[in-house]
Each structure stands twice: as C-alpha cells, then as structure tokens.
Design a protein that fits this description.
The structure is a single chain. This protein is α/β, with parallel strands linked by helices. It has 5 domains: about 10-125 and about 255-280, MutS, DNA mismatch repair protein, Chain A, domain 3 (Orthogonal Bundle); about 145-230; about 285-485, P-loop containing nucleotide triphosphate hydrolases (Rossmann fold); about 575-610 and about 625-670, SH3 type barrels, CATH 2.30.30; about 695-770, Ribosomal Protein S8, Chain: A, domain 1 (2-Layer Sandwich). Helix content is about 50%, strand content about 15%. The strands form 5 sheets. It has a 6-stranded mixed β-sheet with strand order 10-11-12-8-13-14, with helices on both faces. A 5-stranded antiparallel β-sheet has the order 18-17-16-15-19. It has a 4-stranded antiparallel β-sheet with strand order 1-2-4-3. It is flat, with a radius of gyration of 49 Å. The chain starts with a helix and ends with a strand.
C-alpha cells in the first residue's frame, strides 16, 4: 500500500508526534519515513528496544542527547579533504559528547540498549582538540594556538599604537579638520579633513562626505600602522583556517568511527523518542502473534485526541471471528474507532508503541484502507467508483495475512444494491481469511453481521435523551443510525421529521422492524448492564475504602499500644531510679541495719508494689498461718527474724535486734538457721581467688533486671579496684541502652562513660571508667 493511503488513518500526523520527541533531526526524518517492517526478528527487536527504553525512562533514567545534529554530511565533506567551518566542527564535538554520555548511561538492566551503547567508539581526543579551539558559540578561541595568541597580542598593540598616532595627528592639525573624531573607510582608520586640505598631509584619500566639505584621509603617519594591522589580521585569519584544516583532518581520520557511532546513536535516539511518546500518551508496547485472528486492545485512545478528555474504549476479536462491524449514529465515532484500530495495527507493525494500556495484535503482511469520500478526478471516477476500484484491487490480493479497513462499505449508490454488494464483499474477504474492519448503516448488512458467526457487530453509543454521542464502544450491540435525532438537533423542521418517520414505517421490511426492535432491547440491556457495572464499581470503591479505614484504625491502635507501652517503660524506669537512690543511701552506712535503713527498705518494698509491669502475675502461694514465736523470712527486706507479736494484718518481727512492723503477706515461715561459731582459718601464703570479669553482658534482660545487675557489678568492680570495664547491652529498642547510660551518669563511682568503638561492640556497648 502506498503512503498516501496510510494518511487516511492519520499515520503521518501521528508520526509527527513521535518526530517531535527525537533529539536529532536525522532521527526525526527517519521517523517520518516509517513503514511496516517485513522481517519479524527485526520488528520484535524494535519493539523490545522501545520496551527497554520505556522502563529506563520510567525508572528515572535519562541520557543527554541535546543539540545532536546530522553529522553525516560534515563527515563526508571532511573525507573529501575539505575544511570544515568552526560551527561545523562544534557540531562534531557535541556529537562526540553525546556518544560519550550514551556509552556510560545504560547497564545490564537494559541489555539491548547496553549492547548498542557498548559498540560506540568514544572519541574523547577528537572532542578535546575541538573544544580547545572552538567555543560554544562556534567561534575559534583567541588562545586556540600559541601563534594565534601572539598575533592577537600584536594586533591589540598595533591598534593601541594606531589610536595614539591618530590622537597625535588630530591634536597637531585640528584647524584643518572638519571633526576631531576618527572614522573607518575600507577597514582603515582615517581622519575627516577639509576638502581644501586633503592633499596637504600626504597619505591616501578614501573619499569625500556627501556635502563635499570634508574628505576621508589616511595620513602618511597612519598608513604604515594600518598596513601592519591589515597584515596581522590576515595572518590571524590564515591561522584560524590552519586550525580548522588541522581539526578537519582529524575528523577525516576518525570518519569511519563517527559514521558508525552516528548509526548507533540514531537507533538509541529512535528508541528513546518512541518511549517518550509512549509515556506521554499512557501507552504500551504492543504484542504481536501469528496463527489466529484474535485481537485485543484495552483502554485505547486515538493519539490525536485530547488524552485528558477523550473516551477510552476496548476492542477485541476472538480467534474464530474475522470481521468487526461498527454500527451506530453519524458523528458518533464509528470512523474514529476504525482509524484507531487500523492505526494501532500499522504502528505496531512499524515497530512503534500505541496509546493503549494493552495491545495484542495478529501479524499481517498486507494493509489496505478505504476511508473517506475521495473522488478520482484524474481517472474521472465518482466517489462510488473510486471505492469500488480500490476494493477490487483489495479482493485480488487479500489473503489470511491481510488487514482491511472499509469505511461505510457499499455507500454512494442505490441502498439495496449497495447493501447486497457490501455483504458479498465481506463474505469473500472472510472466506479468504482476512481480518476486516468495517462500518455500515444498512439494515441488511447489520442483519448479516448478526447472523454470521465470523462477524462481531458493535456500535458507538448515542444518548437519545441528550441527543449527543457518548463515544463509547459497545461490543455485541447493533446501534441505530439515529438520523432523525441528529436532524432534529440541527434544526430540521418538525413536520418534515414526522413525515420521514411515517415513510420509514411504510417502507421498511419486516426484517428491518425486527432488527430495530432488537436494537432497542439491546439498548435496554446495555443500560441495565451499565447500572450493574456502576453498582459493582461502587461496591469495589466502598470495599477499598473499608480496607483503607481498617488499615488506618489498625495503624492508630498500634500507635496507641506503642505509646502506652512506652509510658509503662518510662514509669518503670522512674520507679527503678527511685529504688536505686534508696539502695545507694543504704550502701552509705556500714555494719548492722539501722532504724533508718529499715525504713528505707520499707520504702523500697512500697515501690515494688506500685511498679507497673507488663509481665504475667504469678499465682499467689497458699500462706501458712503465722503465730508469735515463728521464725520467718521478710520478703521486702530480704532478711529473717522472729515474730514477736501479731495485730490485725501486721506483725512485729525482730530483725538483727531491731523491731520491724511488716504486713503478713510479706512473711514466709522458715526454719531457724543454726548459728555456727566462726572457725579461724590459718593464714597461708598459697591464696587462690577468681579473677574479676572486665565486662558485663546484659543482653536479653529486662530494664529493671539489667539495672540491678549493673549496680551490683559496678559495686564489685569498685571493691576489686577495677578502673575500666565494658557493659554490653546491645541495640534492640534502645530502652535498655538508654537506662544503662542514665544509671551510669548518676552513679557516684563512675568517672567517665563512652560508646564502644568498632572493635568494642559499637553502639551495642558502653565503656566505663571508674574513679
């Protein structure tokens, strides 16, 4: 099929969108020449490249190919031994920069693009030599070579000398001058002298003013300097030309690599352009398959429509269906539907993505499109004749690998004959195994579509209440033409419309009446289906909202539980701190327990009762009856003594010679220990003892248990005169670590604490220096 027929489905207009996403004009031109790819491996590779490029861009990747131009003509010029201009050399440098960027961009996660990029030959020496000589404006830099620097310095010096000589001349001959300013004539500095004195100073006369009163004179004192400036400027241009010639020769040496890189970079740019278009149109890479007519396109939108407001539709054909017949009202979107599917088929076979969420398409080798009311003036053919001529060509070549689009088949002639011809054409194409997309208003053709199992009939919806199309595609539903509704919308006379309806009823056949009745029933069923779908969608929405609310409340409950647990830990820590303070006061005294010590023990016991705990409480033990004279263990004091008296629920106990009032539930009966006289051991020089450990491991302990062990360990370390120890508490939730730090900072025997180093356990350990 020729390109002009592809324009009937807006192929060139959509390719323009792709071309706008390309970085290189060469890539844009290549896109505009796109056509179906005949080689299946090449086609699949093109689609895989787009898929990779899309994932790369969607993942936040990018490659800078900005300013990329078509360097092929420039390289060919250099190969001929001709000199490139500075701005042309700049294009070569920018191209080398793009090659360098692309060669370092892709990874093994993009295997196809990575393989392409790995073939690029980075030409950094060539790029550097050009960048050293050419600036970003495409001009040769003043310091491009040592000779150019010297010539530039000499030119500045000569111009300063010329300016000084001109000022001196003007000062000495002011009375003979028309003006005290200088001017340039023919690129040489002159003074404006009275015409009567123009030969007085020698030198060169370059012309006169329009009034004739003054002449542009280059005095003899300026001629030599002007000559030197002109000579130096000529030397500078020659040096610039030499630099460009040298750089052009380097381009010539690297011509083969440049042309190879250009081909590779164009392929990469093409894949990225397609991917950018795909992401901007919420599109996908189509999947092509062979062996059946099954076709499926989900959430399709024609690329030329506004993606934000256009109605998306889904289309499908089963493997046993060869024809999709679109019916419905005028202006309802039948032609757009046909164009969308045909455009997607042609784009997919050309290696391009489509503007749909998913597309599964059969493989074809021929594509034929008959759309519009074009007349052939050259061949003196009417609209109908033009259609018949094209369809005749299609019937000669159509086979099972052919895709055919026939818009308004059979139109443009007598309706009865046109409908019969349309049915015959469709039957022939279906028999040949071609895939056919068509649209029709003819009742006879609709009836054929309803009864033929190889045809899927569908319609574009028209809302009779608003008298407007909804642009929704309804598969399996035959749509009415709605000519009377549309005529009414455009102001057709009411009397004419009523007469038209009457004539329609008189002329239509019984089959047409049944078909119209069936269409109305289908419309009702579709409305019920839409309502059901809306209810299901609303139910899904409510279910989703309920799930979100459940997650939100579960999250809130967890946060409250965590806050409560944290508060319990804080309270426990505070009570523990109070207990430690009491214990420290007890440790300050030596010898037997005093009355104040016993009171402090009572306070400690009271704290133990009030401590909140998340642990499961132990079952209370059955207590034996305690009477005066019994020997008991005092739980709160961790001591024992004899019961002297019991009043109500309190007992007076003699502990270490002191009377203590204790609750009965804090007493346990025990056997009175036998008092042994101390035996004096003989001193011996062979003394054995256990070494004191230099670290304490608290991992796995609760906060209160760990602090108790810590205090005991610090006391023992002080007793053994140990100066440096390590406390291992681990990371965990941080509660134990924080408690250990706070306890050590308030301990009177601790001089300094610090976090462990990498070899000491890091944040999971604390180093302690004792006084």
């Amino acid at each position: 099929m020729a390109h002009e027929n592809w324009n009937a489905i807006d192929f060139d207009s959509v390719l323009n969108q792709f071309a706008a996403k390309a970085a290189s004009p060469k890539t844009a031109k290549l896109i505009m020449k796109a056509e179906p790819i005949r080689s299946n491996p090449v086609l699949r590779e093109q689609l895989d490249l787009v898929r990779e490029a899309g994932a790369f861009l969607q993942g936040g990747g990018d490659v800078s190919l900005g300013g990329l131009g078509d360097i092929v003509p420039l390289v060919k010029t250099a190969k001929k031994g001709l000199t490139l201009l500075p701005d042309e050399l700049l294009q070569i440098s920018l191209f080398c920069g793009a090659v360098d960027a692309a060669s370092r961009t892709f990874t093994d996660q993009q295997p196809l693009l990575h393989d392409l990029a790995s073939t690029l030959q980075t030409l950094r020496p060539l790029q550097s030599s050009i960048d050293e000589a050419i600036d970003l404006s495409g001009q040769i830099k003043p310091d491009a070579s040592a000779r150019l620097v010297n010539l530039s310095d000499r030119l500045r010096s000569l111009k300063a000398e010329l300016s000084a000589a001109a000022r001196k001349f003007i000062s000495a001959h002011a009375t003979s001058l028309v003006d005290t300013t200088t001017a340039y004539a023919g690129g040489r500095l002159c003074v404006l002298v009275r015409s009567s004195d123009k030969y007085r100073f020698g030198g060169i006369v370059h012309g006169t003013t329009q009034s004739g009163a003054g002449s542009y004179v280059e005095p003899e004192s300026l001629v030599t300097i002007n000559n030197s400036i002109a000579s130096t400027e000529n030397d500078i241009e020659e040096e610039k030309k030499r630099i460009c010639t040298e750089l052009s020769s380097r381009v010539k040496v690297n011509a083969k690599a440049l042309l190879s890189d250009d081909e590779t970079l164009t392929r990469i740019d093409l894949a990225l352009a397609k991917a950018r278009w795909m992401l901007s149109h919420d599109g996908c890479v189509p999947t092509l398959h062979a062996g059946s007519h099954s076709l499926s396109i989900d959430h399709a939108v024609h690329p030329l429509l506004d993606q934000a407001t256009a109605v998306a539709n889904s289309y499908s054909l089963r493997s046993d269906q060869a024809c999709l017949m679109i019916t419905g009202s005028n202006m309802g979107g039948k032609t757009v539907t046909l164009k969308t599917i045909a455009l997607f088929v042609l784009l997919a076979h050309s290696g391009y993505p489509v503007s749909a969420h998913r597309a599964l398409l059969p493989m074809y080798t021929r594509f034929y499109f008959d759309v519009g009311d074009e007349q052939s003036i050259e061949n003196n053919l009417s609209t109908f004749s033009s259609h018949v001529s094209r369809i005749g060509t299609i019937l000669k070549k159509a086979d099972e690998h052919t895709f055919v689009l026939l818009d308004e088949i059979g139109s443009g002639t007598d309706p009865a004959e046109g409908a019969a011809l349309a049915q015959a054409i469709l039957e022939e194409l279906i028999e040949r195994g071609s895939t056919v997309l068509t649209s029709t208003h003819y009742g006879q053709v609709k009836a054929f579509g309803k009864t033929c199992p190889a045809v899927l009939i569908g319609s574009v919806e028209f809302d009779p209440n608003t008298l407007r199309p909804t642009y929704r595609f309804l598969p399996g539903v035959s749509g009415a033409s709605c000519a009377f509704h549309i005529a009414s919308q455009f102001g057709m006379n009411h009397k004419v419309l009523e007469r038209a309806r009457m004539l329609k009823k008189e002329n239509e056949s019984e089959a047409a009446k049944q078909l119209e009745s069936l269409e109305k029933q289908q419309a009702k069923v579709q409305k019920q289906k839409d309502k059901f779908d809306a209810l299901v969608k609303d139910a899904h929405r409510l279910q989703k909202k309920a799930d979100e609310d459940q997650k939100k409340w579960a999250s809130m409950k967890k946060r409250l539980d965590d806050d409560y647990a944290q508060k319990l830990d804080d309270m426990l820590f505070e009570k523990t701190e109070e207990a430690k303070a009491i214990v420290r006061e007890l440790k300050k005294s030596a010898g037997k327990a005093s009355h104040e010590q016993i009171e402090k023990m009572g306070e400690l016991n009271a704290l133990g009762k009030g401590q909140p705990s998340s642990q499961v409480k132990e079952e209370p033990k059955v207590q034996e009856k305690i009477e005066p004279g019994d020997y008991v263990h005092v739980l709160g004091l961790n001591n024992h003594g004899e019961v002297l008296d019991i009043r109500k629920k309190k007992a007076t106990v003699l502990v270490n010679g002191r009377k203590v009032n204790v609750s009965l539930d804090q007493l346990e009966k025990m056997k009175k220990p036998a008092v042994q006289k101390p035996v004096r051991k003989k001193e011996t020089s062979d003394i054995s003892f256990r070494p004191f450990p230099l670290e304490l491991n608290l991992i796995g302990m609760r906060v209160e248990e760990g602090i108790r062990e810590l205090d005991h360990y610090i006391d023992q370390a002080v007793y053994h005169n140990i100066k440096n120890v390590r406390i291992i508490h681990g990371m965990g939730t941080g509660a134990l670590r924080n408690a250990v730090t706070k306890d050590l900072r308030s301990h009177p025997q601790v001089k300094k604490i610090s976090t462990g180093g990498p070899s000491d356990g890091g944040l999971g350990a604390t180093l302690v220096e004792l006084k």
